[in-house]
C-alpha cells in the first residue's frame, strides 16, 4: 500500500511540475525572440514553434501582404542552430538563410500579396536537436495617399 501511495504522489507531482518547466522554457525563448522585434514592427500573439531532430524540417505557412515590411525572426537556445528557407506555394525558393550565414532575422518589403511557406531546419554542425521558434513582425510602410 505504501508503494502505491508513493507512486501516485510522484505521478501527481510530475503532472504539475513538468508542464510548468516546459512552459517556462518556451516563455524564456519567446522573451528572447521578441527582443528582435521592436518598434516600428508589430508582432501577433502567435508564435510558431517546433522541436527538431536530425534532418527534420518544420513547415510554417503564412500570408504576406502588399505594402508591408516584414521581419522574420528565428530563435533557438543555441545561436546559429536554425536555418530557414522562404518558398512560394509552388515551392520556388525566395530566400535561404544559409546563403547569408544564417542571420537571426531578415527584413523584406512585399510588392504584392502572397501565401508563403517557411521551412526551418537544424544546422546539424551546431546540434542534433533543438527548439525552433519563428516570429513574424510587420509594419505598414506603403506610402499611399
Count of helix runs: 1
* Count of structural domains: 1
Architecture, CATH level 2?
Answer: Sandwich
Mean pLDDT: 80
Percent strand: 35-45%
The geometry reads as: globular
Query: What does the main sheet amount to?
Result: 5 strands, antiparallel
Structure description:
With 145 residues, this protein is of the alpha+beta class. It has a single domain (32-140), classed as Jelly Rolls (Sandwich). The chain is 23% helix and 42% strand. Strands 1, 2, 4, 7 and 9 form a five-stranded antiparallel β-sheet that branches. Strands 3-8-5-6 form a four-stranded antiparallel β-sheet, with no helix packed on it.
What does the secondary structure layout of this molecule look like, with pairings?
Blueprint lengths: L1 H33 L7 E2 L4 E6 L3 E8 L3 E8 L6 E7 L4 E4 L8 E5 L4 E9 L6 E12 L5
Antiparallel strand pairs: 1-9, 2-9, 3-8, 4-7, 4-9, 5-6, 5-8
Annotation keywords:
42% strand; alpha+beta; 1 helix; 23% helix; Jelly Rolls; four-stranded antiparallel sheet; 145 residues; five-stranded antiparallel sheet; globular
Short recap of the structure:
The chain has one helix at 2-34; strands spanning 42-43, 48-53, 57-64, 68-75, 82-88, 93-96, 105-109, 114-122, 129-140. The protein has 145 residues and is of the alpha+beta class.
